[in-house]
């Protein structure tokens, strides 16, 4: 949490003024019992109406000044706390953008959402409360005690007994409830997690008639949370009756001792009332202090969780060369520019963090400029893992990847990725117009370039039918488009970048065969001639590639052209003939 306090540094003035104004308010509050005493002892005792009115006006003035101080303090503390929250949120968001996929996989997106939302809100609420109360409450407790001593030392001795007893009760309850509140928080996290998962998978849940089971799961977690809250609420609930018993006991003692001393003329009635008021003020502030400590403890726990994420250093070092494929040079001066492979895997293996074994093992191949590389293999054979290493979503754990002759790790990741067009398995679009979505590929792209990309990605026809065409509004997650339409737009988005390397990771799965074939033909005829990686489970999608890499359980079972593999690679034969039975092929 300490490390987060730097986000308050732009709010130094507010962080000083808020507690100061609260103390000012408290000082005026401490004067009120004395004025009350004067009203009773002088005004009422002497039936001095003008004096009573004057003192009432003083009371109103004290109240008004206190109110202004309180509002001012509230303003400064709210400004500092919301500025703090905004700063932390911005820093955390930026930090998450820099984390590698390995780190994001390890933390999990649900956890990151909780850190960015409820954890930051709790930390912000903690800062707000601390700024307002951390000086004010102790100030009132000690101030009221000192004032009591100035009124009457003997009667004030009752405070010396009552305050420690009150403190023991208030802080005892707090100590017991604090770990319980932590438990409540973790139950709340589980409920949030379940809710998020449930909402994200609502369609699947309904399709599989799992509503009842999901409802029961939610009920169970919600009930656990409710029980935990009730339990901690019951213990917290003890605080008020116990403290009031002690305070009322103290007040009885004060009144009794006061009455005796009033009788002998050592104390006035007004002073007894002032002492009672000070006792009540102390009680209120001790309860506030306990609540402050509970909130701060929660805020510190949340702050530590946020700090934990901020502390994670991305384990992927950024290179410092700018990726310029046009003037790619090789360290080997004798090598001709055209002979430098666009992508080269040199005995590459990949083990995901925490995984039991390798997902890719000893992969070696060269993809020359303008070539199309097909990657085929069964589910989980490592196809996505292989292409994900080209834009450095993951780094090789063994071996080396070279892009245009240089170690991939030497390039600045941002510049490397700006020349790679990636179309992932899951088509993700964002709320906004079609044009806005396409310009993610290149924000400076002209309308003509967008049209060209739509043409190649076979999206033009359906975009023509949408009202407003490029200005058609895509809803959140692209829910007003079909799966195939979304896929075509994500392909167009990657093409707008005019990439040197284009990766299509099973991204034509929602397209019919004819559209898939037209797409591949259009990509082949692109004038910029990118190196294309097509990942697919369909043999028809890769069979015309210059090279096909057949993956089997993370290993390259064969690399070659369709004709070569059909002769030499049993794994490829198995895939191909399972989709195009031998009889059909020979008859055709
Ligand atoms: N982020 C990850 N963390 C840990 N293991 C992973 C991760 N991504 C993939 N794997 C594992 O690596 C192996 C290869 O997965 P990959 O997604 O590359 O296969 P694939 O051939 O693309 O499969 P599919 O055709 O089903 O998409 C699998 O065993 C998978 O469980």
Automatic annotation (TrEMBL):
Gene3D superfamilies: ABC transporter type 1, transmembrane domain, P-loop containing nucleotide triphosphate hydrolases. The chain crosses the membrane at residues 20-45, 51-73, 133-151, 157-181, 242-259. PROSITE patterns: ABC_TM1F, ABC_TRANSPORTER_1, ABC_TRANSPORTER_2. GO terms for molecular function: ABC-type oligopeptide transporter activity; ATP binding; ATP hydrolysis activity. Residues 343-578 form the ABC transporter domain. Residues 16-298 form the ABC transmembrane type-1 domain. Keywords: ATP-binding, Cell membrane, Membrane, Nucleotide-binding, Transmembrane, Transmembrane helix, Transport. InterPro entries: AAA+_ATPase, ABC1_TM_dom, ABC1_TM_sf, ABC_transporter-like_ATP-bd, ABC_transporter-like_CS, P-loop_NTPase, Type_1_exporter. SMART domains: AAA. The keyword Cell membrane applies. One of its GO terms (cellular component) is plasma membrane. This is ABC transporter ATP-binding protein. It comes from Mediterraneibacter catenae. The lineage of its organism: Bacteria, Bacillati, Bacillota, Clostridia, Lachnospirales.
